[in-house]
Amino acid sequence: MTTTIKIEDDKKEKLDKFLASLLLKEGMKITLQEAVGLMVDYALENQEEIIKRLKDMPPLEDDQAWKSLENPMHWGIKDSSKRIDEFLYGR
After folding, report:
1. Which of 6, 8, 49, 65 is most buried (CB neighbours < 10 A)?
2. Which among 31, 33, 11 has a CA at the least distance from the CA of 19?
């Protein structure tokens, strides 16, 4: 079974470059799925190091998107689908 995950564009680009360098320097060709799987295995085997890195990250509560979810903007109407249509389609 597989699951789809989202990854930032810059991280995807770095992964692609890493896989390309593996092919050029080492003659190893692996898929993105195989690489991510190996990275997950490595992270699970080295949990203490991963936890240290996670603790160095800013807390989610400081993220602007998270703050916006905590304090949503009220548009003064019950159903915002009309406003969304106006914004997206100009009607």
Report:
1. 49
2. 31
pTM of the model: 0.57
Whether the Cβ atoms of residue 30 and residue 37 lie closer than 8 Å to each other: no
Q: Which two tokens stand for residue 5?
A: 């995950």
Cα–Cα distance measured from residue 86 to residue 78, given in angstroms and rounded to the nearest whole number? 15
What's CA 11's distance to the chain center, in Å?
A: 8
For 60, the token pair is 């989610």
The pLDDT of residue 75: 65
- For the chain, which residues make up each domain, given as ranges? 9-89
What is the rounded distance in angstroms from the CA atom of residue 63 to the CA atom of residue 69? 10
CA distances from 30 to 7, 18, 20 (A): 19, 11, 9
Lowest mean pLDDT among 2-6, 24-28, 64-68, 76-80: 76-80
